[in-house]
Description:
The protein is of the alpha+beta class. It has 2 domains: 1-52, 2,3-Dihydroxybiphenyl 1,2-Dioxygenase, domain 1; 53-104, Roll (2,3-Dihydroxybiphenyl 1,2-Dioxygenase, domain 1). It is built from 2 helices and 7 strands. The radius of gyration is 14 Å and the shape is globular.
Amino acid sequence: MHGSVSFVEIGTTDTDRTHAFFERVFGWKFTPMSHGGGWFQTPSMRMGLHGNDPQPQALASVRDAGGTAENSGEEVPGFGRFANCRDPQGIVFGLHQRPSAPQT
């Protein structure tokens, strides 16, 4: 898998403490979402924040490389798809796929 970074996700056990920390350190505005997480607007992209990672499932390319990944689910209009992943050592990261069709 090759490409440029379009989205970064941070996993945490305490989303309130984590978003307060990043707001204070970097000055990024946090936008909460109904599920308890949300996203920061950084100078170059959005950066997601979530808590309580669900049980991972495999995405072919991550699994083939020895990692695990949750099912990305349905595409979200204007955002695309997202999956939480872990490398072979258990380090959590997220994969984002841009939307298949531009938003009109």
